[in-house]
Amino acid sequence: MGKVRVKSPEKVDTTPWLIKQFSGTTPHQNYFKNMRFPRHSLIHRGAVLNKNKYRLRASSCPNIYRVSMTTLTKDDDEPWYSGLIKFVSLFDEFHYLLMSASTVLLFAWFMTPYFYLVDHMTASGYEEHEASLVLSAIGVANTLGMIFFGWAGDQTWTNVTKTYGVCMILCGACCSAIFLATANYTLLNIFGVLYGVFLASSFSFTPIVLVELLPLETFTKAYGLQLMCQGIGHLGGPPFAALLADLTGTWSYSFHLAGVWIVISGLLMLIIPYTKNRKLIGTGPVEKELANE
């Protein structure tokens, strides 16, 4: 009788997936085989079907499908300004208008410490390098704050809109406190660091709030309009703060006014989770409701 070969059991690779990515070995041909993506992820092949304007087209093979996008013919009789009206139509929604007003106020005034803190500190008797250190502390704290709030925004226990509003209120309070703590260099640095941390929530939370307020297919337009609001704020705020200092001979009004308007910016954001979104002009469903139909 011939010898019977006993097949040895296959070895199961128990190496964690994350460690494999940093190993020096060449990735296997089935590199993405065991990676799981959420069905609503942009990477998932069926994610494109979540958008209403895409439809399936029949194919002879059951596991292969093609996606086509439906388009509407443009009416030649439409006035020239119809495209502009469609572009800014999001401002007709109550919640988006609140967020846009909050963005304009925030970006009009949050640059006041960045632009004029050095002038204020040197006028108060500090050396220029001491003022530069405070600005550096604000910048480092702002960077670390973006990382923290970016992580916190992905957690289920975080209400992003409420957290954003509270952070803006605290940011405005710290802006005024920076001026009040001018005589104490240690307190000045502490309030500067807190100012940078709370301000970071704006950069980390803005895209998340937009996705909560609007459907994904309008995100590009919505975020572009928010960038426009940021630019409008930048154009008006810093020059007015400098003009106010020239007229009054002190930076106190500029810093305190900046703090007040940043607090108002946070209060506008806090209105959103406690109210229902609706059209301001006319009637009808908002974009989020249309996407869910």
From TrEMBL:
Q: Which InterPro entries match?
A: MFS (IPR011701), MFS_dom (IPR020846), MFS_trans_sf (IPR036259), Proton-linked_MCT (IPR050327)
A Pfam cross-reference name:
MFS_1
- A GO CC term assigned to this protein in UniProt: membrane
Localization, per the record, is: Membrane
Alphabetized, the UniProt keywords read: Membrane, Transmembrane, Transmembrane helix
Q: Note the topology in the membrane.
A: Multi-pass membrane protein
Q: Which Gene3D superfamilies match?
A: MFS general substrate transporter like domains (1.20.1250.20)
Recorded hits in PROSITE patterns, A to Z, give: MFS
According to the entry, every stretch annotated as the Major facilitator superfamily (MFS) profile domain falls at 88-293
Q: Which GO terms describe its molecular function?
A: monocarboxylic acid transmembrane transporter activity
| Transmembrane spans | 94-111, 131-151, 163-181, 187-211, 251-272
Q: What is this protein called?
A: Major facilitator superfamily (MFS) profile domain-containing protein
Q: Which organism is it from?
A: Tenebrio molitor (Yellow mealworm beetle)
Upper classification of the organism: Eukaryota, Metazoa, Ecdysozoa, Arthropoda, Hexapoda
